[in-house]
Amino acid sequence: MAHLEWQDTLHALQAGPMDAAHQEFVTLTNTLADAPDEEELACLTQVFVHCKEHFAQEELWMQASHMPSIENHMRDHEGVLTLLESAAADLRAGQHGAGRELAESLAAWFGRHVATMDAGLAFHMQQATRSAKPGIPAVG
Q1: Could you count the other beta carbons within 10 Å of the beta carbon of residue 53?
Q2: Where is the Hemerythrin-like domain (predicted)?
Q3: How many domains in the chain?
């Protein structure tokens, strides 16, 4: 299975906590891609927990900084969580490989999501921080 490779030129947004969470996502997704059948569900669960926490943090940043298009970004997050839940249900039903297959799809999703939605969020937050609005968290 092809692995998701972290590339600073593509993935680093100069947004400290966001970049760290994205690097963790890459590691967890690659671990899932390589998981043997007996560890696949546990690895998928780790990806799910990570995504749920990371997405919740991003959504707090979006709300605090009054990010435009928050609904589209949140829908993209919800779609990934739904796919993760569906793959977990398949694994619990004995359909080995569902998590590994999803890991490949997550790799493609990640590149698009970071380059568009997360890059926009990082830029918006960096601009909001520069204008020194109270209550806007810094990410860079």
Answers
A1: 12
A2: 18-121
A3: 1
- Within a domain: residue 111? yes
Reported residue count of the chain is 140
Backbone angles phi, psi at 91, to 5 degrees: -65, -40
pLDDT confidence of 86, banded at 50, 70, 90?
very high
Helices (H), the chain: 8-11, 16-34, 37-64, 70-92, 98-113, 119-130
8 in any annotated domain: no
Distances (CA, A) of 72 to 8, 18, 58, 62, 100: 25, 18, 13, 11, 27
pLDDT at 32: 97
For helices 37-64 and 119-130, the axis angle rounded to 10 degrees is 30
Tokens 């998701």, located at residue: 4
pLDDT computed for residue 128 by the predictor: 74
CATH of the domain at 59: 1.20.120.50
Structural domain includes residue 139: no
Domain holding 47, by residue range, is: 16-130
